[in-house]
Amino acid sequence: MTGLGTSESGLPRVRLPMSPDEARRLKAGDLVLLDGEALATVGMPTHRRMIAEIEAGRPMPTPMDGGAFFHMGVCYDEEPSGPGRLHYVNPTTSTRFNGMMPTLIRRFGLTAVGGKGGLSRDSVEAMRDVGCVYFSFVGGASALLSLGVTEVVEAAWPDLIMQFRLNRIRLAGLGPVTVAIDAHGESVYDRLQASATARLSDILQSVRSG
Amino acid sequence: MAITYDLVREVTANLYDWSLRQIPESSKAELRRAVETETVPQARQTLAFMLESAETAERTGRFLCSDAGVPSYTVKIGSAARFEGDIRQAIVDGFDHLVQTIEPPILRFVTNPLTNERSYRGKDMPLVSYELIGEVDYLDITCAPKALGGGRWAAIEILVSPSIEDIERCIMEIVLRAGGQHCPPVVIGVGIGGTFDHAAKLSKDATLRPFGERNPEPLVAAMEERLTRAVNMTGFGPMGVGGSTTTFGVHIEYAAGHGFTPIAVSFNCWINRRTRARIYNSGRVERIE
């Protein structure tokens, strides 16, 4: 089973984790589908604990170096041996993790991050330095998006509630996703925000004049 | 005959369940239209994916979003409605029962704001507002769960004796602050006037209006039309990654007030979860949305 809707066939496929050079080949605005593996969490406590572990010099509970790390909720059956059958996935808003993401991107040399809503300038710069892109997932499209995830392979930090754990998911055609921040410092979010702000007076004048 | 505890418990739980699996008809119609009118090719593809996913969720009973949000109800009470049992408790108990039995399971989103502890229960949960309507013999209940995308970006400003131009600029500044983070194409609800709390309530009510309906007052309808065009000229587009479809409609409600004018703006994400039913004294249940 893949996450391909009828309109998505023919999109380029990207296998995760990427090398920094592979990440640098993607350009802001590209639409792609994802294969391979990624970590997924939506937890603020998770991010805080990662930062605390880094500061304490302790290892992460699962390998993160050079990996893909998504702001994405995951729901699955819990079995005694670990994660069971996957129910669904969906992205969440990344900007609330702005304060922690630059550290995580640099420390682990992440080559892909993602979710929805983007990340701030500090993250964009960290991504340019290490060779990392941000994938924008379509929120609210869980019914199709979930078909692009085949399995939850691991759930690190099981003391946290399900969607807060570091859930390692296996992907088969997850998407379509948009490269919304590329590894060259180009952020679609920053560009659109600057453009809308600069044009606000013109927009208001234009709609008033009919 | 009267509206019973059992019936309210069952209907409010069903409204929440249904809201997780299907988008309103007017949202579907807007998506179909936008797939044709959107000017950016990638955005057209995103809109088509949204529409196909929503249709899949409805057909297969899957959830639209992994975030079930927090349950939020608006209960309009006809003054000829009669009750049997504790109607407020019925809504609480219906939600409690639902989260234990729903398939697939929903994740914990009810959050204590002071400790950030998450659960399925919490103070004042579900969030319910009650209001009296005319002399009709039913309860009119709307369920509209709220998650971060649709709930986080709401804002209120209080201006003093503003002009229409001032009000429209204020609304657009709030729209710009939200950017594309609320899972556009969104519905935008604006409440103008009254007091702080009243404007917020009007704004929420405005988000619940189906697309295609305009405020009956021409002055307000003209503002809605201008602002809808203005928001779509920002370029944020579907999921905020560029396009000409950022909103399917700006809906405005207003109330008289003092010279200070609260302007409340709230959003709901593209799945626009909203279901609605009436329960009559006779025990009849009428699904509206």
Q: What would your notes on this structure say?
A:
The complex is a heterodimer of chains A (210) and B (289). Chain A has one domain (13-208): fumarase, CATH 3.20.130. Helices cover 29% and strands 33% of the residues of chain A. Chain A has 6 helices and 8 strands; from the N terminus they run βαβαββαβαβαββα. Chain A has a 5-stranded mixed barrel. In chain A, helix 1 (20-24) links the parallel strand 1 and strand 2 (31-41). The longest helix of chain A has 21 residues, at 188-208. Chain A is globular. Mean pLDDT of chain A is 95; it is low at 1-7. Chain B has 289 residues and is an alpha/beta fold. In chain B, 38% of the residues lie in helices and 24% in strands. Chain B has helices at 5-19, 25-37, 41-60, 87-101, 148-151, 164-178, 196-207, 218-233, and strands at residues 3-4, 72-78, 83-84, 110-111, 118-119, 127-133, 138-143, 155-160, 186-193, 247-255, 260-268, 275-280, 285-287. A 5-stranded mixed β-sheet of chain B has the order 6-2-7-12-13, with helices on one face. The relative contact order of chain B is 0.21. The model of chain B has no long low-confidence stretch (mean pLDDT 96). Classes of the chains: A alpha/beta (210), B alpha/beta (289). The interface between A and B is large, with 53 and 55 residues.
CATH superfamily of chain A: Fe-S hydro-lyase, tartrate dehydratase beta-type, catalytic domain
* Number of E-type strands of chain A: 8
Helix content of chain B: 25-40%
Categorize the overall geometry of chain B: globular
Task: Briefly note the structural class of the backbone of chain B.
Answer: alpha/beta
**Which spans of chain B have pLDDT < 50 for at least 5 consecutive residues?**
none
Sheet-strand content of chain A, in percent, reads 25-35%
Tally the helices of chain A: 6
Q: Order the strands across the largest sheet of chain B as they lie in space.
A: 6-2-7-12-13
Rg of chain B computed from alpha carbons, rounded to a whole number of angstroms: 19 Å
The low-confidence parts of chain A are: 1-7
Q: Write the element-wise H/E pattern of chain B from the N-terminal end onward.
A: EHHHEEHEEEEHEHEHHEEEE
Oligomer: heterodimer
**Using CB atoms under 8 Å apart, which protein chain pair has the greatest interface?**
A-B, 53 and 55 residues
Mean pLDDT of chain B: 96
Strand order of the largest sheet of chain A: 2-3-5-6-8
**Count of helical stretches of chain B:** 8
Rounded to the nearest angstrom, the radius of gyration of chain A is 18 Å
CATH first level of chain A: Alpha Beta
